[in-house]
Amino acid sequence: MSVPSELRIVRAGKLDAPRPLRHALDAFLHALRVEHERREDIIVAVGEALSNAVEHGNPAGNGTVELYARIEPSETLVVDVRDDGTFIDREHGTPGRGFGLGIVRAIARAVSIDTANGTLISMTFDAPTAA
Amino acid sequence: MSGGSVQVIRLAGELDATRREEIARALTLDLGRGGVLVDLSGAEYADSTVIAELVRLRRDADHVGRSVALLTGSPRIARILAYAGLGEAFRIFEDRGTALTALTTGTV
After folding, report:
1. pTM exceeding the 0.80 threshold for the entire prediction
2. Does the model's ipTM exceed the 0.85 cut?
3. Top-confidence residue, A53 or A58
């Protein structure tokens, strides 16, 4: 059976959206045979970005949150989290969010934030696979 | 140093922002004077929501001279704390008996 090389899901940007998206990403990483501890860390980092997106990226209540993960050569995983909101004051506006983005930056090899059209947080992870 | 019986707070399952109010309510000091053990051994997922509330609990406990320790079932929580820059902020135990002994004897 072939293993999918990417995962893309768009959901309504409700507060309960991150949990099923985390579960889907976990299943995707499991199928890719990403090492257990690394998988846990990636889920936490992406979970922080997803929580950030639904707490701050959906001011009108009718926006969406998109998760797009794909595996690239050299055991590299890129995960994008996109929402419809602005990025202003996210790191300080909600209890825990400052810790949250710190956790993302500690786990990911690279993080970029593009606010040109909504907010896109793109995270690059080392994703070694189990032997 | 803490004295008296230990307040044990257990949080299990997926601890994320959707449970923020519940987590904040749970991580509140009781009226006792003993140490506080936060049992996260049943946590399947924990994010910065929990980290922020643990920091608040720790600050409140410090104000009244009570100690706080964590009980975990895997290294996951310790790693998240370290990623948040709080690697040395809490004593972490993987054994309940050892944690309770440390809290009741004031060695936390």
Report:
1. yes
2. yes
3. A53
Mean pLDDT of chain A: 88
Does the beta-carbon distance from A96 to B85 stay under 8 Å? no
Least confident of A59-73, A100-114, B54-68: A59-73
A117 CA: distance to closest CA in chain B (Å): 25
Render B19-61 in DSSP notation, one character per residue: GHHHHHHHS---S--S-EEEE-TTEEEE-HHHHHHHHHHHHHH
Residue of A nearest to B21 (CA): A95
Question: In sequence order, what are the residues at sequence separation of 6 or more whose Cβ sits closer than 8 angstroms to the Cβ of residue A107?
Answer: A41, A42, A44, A45, A125, B83
B93 CA: distance to closest CA in chain A (Å): 19
Task: Name which of A15, A41, A95 is nearest B18 (Cβ-Cβ).
Answer: A15
Number of A/B CB contacts below 8 angstroms equals: 69
Three-class SS of chain A: CCCCCEEEEEEECCCCCHHHHHHHHHHHHHHCCECHHHHHHHHHHHHHHHHHHHHHCCCCCCCEEEEEEEEECCCEEEEEEEECCCCCCHHHHCCCHHHHHHHHHHHCCEEEEECCCCEEEEEEEECCECC
Which residue reads 């040395």 in tokens? B88
